[in-house]
Amino acid sequence: MRLGGPVDTDESDPNAWIADLEERGYRAAAAPVGPDASDETVRAYREAAEAADVEIAEVGAWGANPISDDPETRAAGIDQCQRALQLADDLGARCAVDVAGSRGETWDGPHPENFSDETFYRIVDAVQEIVDGVEPEDAVYTLEPMPWIYPHDVESYRRLVDAIDREAFGVHFDPVNMITSPRRHARDAEFVREFVAEFGDDIEVVHLKDVTLADELTVHVDEVRPGAGELDYHVLLSVLDDLDDDLPVLLEHLDSEQAYERARAYVREVADEVGATL
Questions:
Q1: Residues 103-125: tens digit of each pLDDT
Q2: Could you tell me if residue 208 is left (phi over 0), alpha (psi between -120 and 50 degrees) or otherwise beta?
């Protein structure tokens, strides 16, 4: 596995980006530039990453809603995701990633129709259009799991993979986003094993977070820093260690470098305890 996380990036200086990653011991990172970057800049970052043996994990298409009920929003979402996938291919990244979208006004929020059959097949159509419009050589398109839309568990992700039926569609693993009930929280190790056993080396990127279940009604499941919750990291890192040696595992959503430092230390400590290569 390759641990990664965010760093402040001066888009004009790939060497400074590499230095920031190396200072933190990161061997993977999210894309340091966006689709509007010049070809020269993209090429410079790709060459810098290759020279430093840094894996560019993902290009985010965050904010895109390719399944919106509004035709203009949907078209803009498809275009944004296609541009992200093209950038991933040009940059040498493993994948482009977005959430599936939403039937509501918020691109990543809940809506009563998000779990309908119509929405499922709208996601299928959108992903096929994104992938077919780009035809990437190496990168793949992925969907980050979310609590309130497909894919939200092993079964729904498998259904999507089978229905989309494209080699350029891969799997994105964010276990915390799928721990949405007290039952799954209580059996998180079982869930992690099931997901990894089902998708194996089709998993392109993993997001590392943690989760805690509050002792109050009705149900409060909160994302926290790795090591500050109850997710079974010993099982998570053990099963991921059996996959691709270059699998990027990315820290995210923390509010300070001190928090990232604590998260890095915890992940590395658990990796040492279970004998996982990080």
A1: 999 999 999 999 999 999 999 99
A2: beta
- With a pLDDT cut of 90, the percent of the chain lying above it is 98
Q: Which residues of 104-126 are buried (b: 16+ CB within 10 A; e: fewer)?
A: beebbbebeebeeeebbebbbeb
195 dihedral zone (left: phi>0; alpha: psi -120 to 50; beta): alpha
Nearest CA-CA partner of 42 in 171, 128, 139, 143: 139
Distance of CA 77 to CAs 128, 134, 235, Å?
Answer: 13, 14, 36
In angstroms, the Cα distances linking 105 to 13, 47, 70, 110, 114 are 37, 40, 9, 9, 12
Torsion of Cα atoms, 214 then 218 then 219 then 220, to 10°: -50
